[in-house]
Amino acid sequence: MPRRAGFVNSKIKSWRQAGRLSYLRFAARHSFSTASLRLKAARRGRSSDTRGSFSIVKYLLFRVINSPMSPIYQFDFTVPAEVVDGNGHVNNVAYIQWMQDAAVRHAGATGCIRATTALGATWVVRSHHIEYLSPAFAGDVLRLFTWVANFHKVRSLRKYKLIRLTDETIIARAETDWVFVDAKSGRPVAIPGEIKETLPVVSKEMEP
After folding, report:
1. Structural domain total, the chain
2. What angle (nearest 5°) sits at the alpha carbon of residue 107, between those of residues 29 and 158?
3. Full-model pTM
4. CB distance 141 to 82 below 8 Å
5. What's the domain range around 145?
6. CA-based angle 191:150:56, to the nearest 5?
7. Where are the beta strands (DSSP E) in 72-120?
8. Residue 111 sits in the same domain as residue 181
9. Residue 167: left if φ>0, alpha if ψ -120 to 50, beta else—which one?
10. What is the per-residue pLDDT across 125-167, written as a single tens digit (0 to 9) for each?
11. Is the domain of 189 the same as that of 90?
12. Which of 12, 41, 65 is the last residue of a domain?
């Protein structure tokens, strides 16, 4: 156990010293992907190592999400009574507003909005996809996670996960396809590197 704790602490220290490197590049450098940890444990033939490896991933993910550098943004809020519809639960439209609020907060915190404005550009929504998994009610305290899943030439996919904090029920999962456009003409333009640097992509293995 002491050796494992030392291993974790040394990796966390290295991660903190990684500066502006995205946590994904750091994770790849230190073989923290779920697949590699499973493979290493299998090669050693010790099931306890598998549990230990996954606990390390869980611990690192917790530290990543709660770091100021985190590419996974989260915020908590209480459901207001005015978004509840005639069915007694949150109206479907409210989720779209929460998703947009989360995206704007995240982009503002990382400097993406500032960099986008400086280039004379903006982001517009191409499509939303929401999977409603459980109803939410007035007074519920929710946590919304959001992160960037990929970049293409002029588009970027952002994902969301909404949970209720009291019982950790997943309320919804969602995606938004955003398009990078010229603010004056409204025409799509290629997403430059300086914009991508403000929003590191989160791999499937590291999604919350």
Report:
1. 2
2. 70
3. 0.70
4. no
5. 73-206
6. 135
7. 73-78
8. yes
9. alpha
10. 999 999 999 999 999 999 999 999 999 999 999 999 999 999 9
11. yes
12. 65
